[in-house]
Design goal:
about 100 residues, 3-stranded parallel β-sheet, 3 strands, about 10% strand
Length: about 100
């Protein structure tokens, strides 16, 4: 399984990103790709700042509050991503130990 970081998805969606083609190859070519709740939260934050969301809601004929979940679902399906819950109980040594 390959963990897909938010930056890979953002690069694949940004026409001005020089890594766009490489990011798309990763997303379209690899099997068993997974994302975590952190990726969903970060991607939601990036997308929520886009001014086009209201316009997109109108074009899709859906309420504005449903645009973000609709985009996330589309991206998950489009790139064949699998959500995997991350435990989050990672112990890091204290600074200086």
């Amino acid at each position: 399984m390959s963990y897909i970081d938010t930056s890979v998805i953002v690069a694949a969606l940004d026409p001005s990103d020089r890594r766009r083609d490489q990011a798309r190859r990763v997303l379209e070519g690899r099997e068993d790709k997974f994302i975590s709740e952190l990726v969903l939260a970060e991607l939601s934050s990036v997308l929520a700042r886009r001014e086009e969301l209201k316009e997109l809601a109108s074009e899709l004929g859906i309420r504005e509050d449903l645009v973000l979940p609709a985009i996330l679902i589309y991206l998950i399906k489009r790139f064949g991503l699998t959500y995997m819950k991350v435990n989050g109980l990672v112990r890091l040594p204290a600074i200086g130990e």
